[in-house]
Amino acid sequence: MRSDQAVHWILVPLLLVLCAGMVQFTLPLTTKSVFAQNKAEWHARAKALENAQDWPALLAHCRLWTNSQPGNDAAWFGLGVAYFRMGNFQESLKANREGLRIRPDVPDIWNNIGCAYGGLGRYQEAIKAFKEALRIKPNDAMSWGGLALAYADAGNRSAALEAVKELRRYDPQKADELFNRIIKP
């Protein structure tokens, strides 16, 4: 290696580190992910992208996050959300299963799995996933709503209406919406 190449390999990373603090405030939202340092920063960035419904940016961010912190269930959850919102249900399943491998007791991950199975038309598996979420958190409105939709899509109207009845205890407005969807397909 020539000496000028060696200097390049030393100076460029050093300059990047020194400038990172200044640059991160001027870069577009999608590249700020590179500068996230801890779980809270990664999570806050993912939440901001989700709220903005910027699914490609959320996907890019969560790919970086899972590479940076592969043992973080929230990173895999975010990746699963991004894939789901972009219509890639199979990849959403893969990402959420990785999150479950890390923390199998997170009902939101089970809900994501149920939604992904529903997107794939695998309603019986969706039902099992939503039931698992409810086993962990019995009063979760999202899980009850997902279960109702999965039963309805599977053609089990009576079970769907029972789930809506339970949902009514936690989110009456959502229960009314689902009731009308199930009754008037």
Blueprint of the fold:
Blueprint: H1 3-23, H2 39-51, H3 55-68, H4 73-85, H5 89-102, H6 107-119, H7 123-136, H8 141-153, H9 157-168, H10 172-183
Helix pairs in contact: 2-3, 2-4, 3-4, 4-5, 4-6, 5-6, 6-7, 6-8, 7-8, 8-9, 8-10, 9-10
Report what the structure shows.
With 185 residues, this protein is mainly α. The chain has two domains: 34-104, Serine Threonine Protein Phosphatase 5, Tetratricopeptide repeat (Alpha Horseshoe); 107-185, Tetratricopeptide repeat domain (Serine Threonine Protein Phosphatase 5, Tetratricopeptide repeat), CATH 1.25.40. It is 75% helix and 0% strand. The chain has helices spanning 3-23, 39-51, 55-68, 73-85, 89-102, 107-119, 123-136, 141-153, 157-168, 172-183. The radius of gyration is 21 Å and the shape is elongated. Mean pLDDT is 85; it is low at 1-31.
Task: Describe this structure in a few short sentences.
The chain is 75% helix and 0% strand. It is mostly helical.
Strand content: under 5%
Topology, number of strands? 0
The CATH class of the largest domain, by name, is Mainly Alpha
Could you tell me the CATH topology label of the largest domain.
Answer: Serine Threonine Protein Phosphatase 5, Tetratricopeptide repeat
What structural class results from the helix and strand content? mainly alpha
Helix-strand topology string:
HHHHHHHHHH
Mean pLDDT score, rounded? 85
First-to-last CA distance:
70 Å
Q: What is the helix content? A: over 70%
Global geometry: elongated
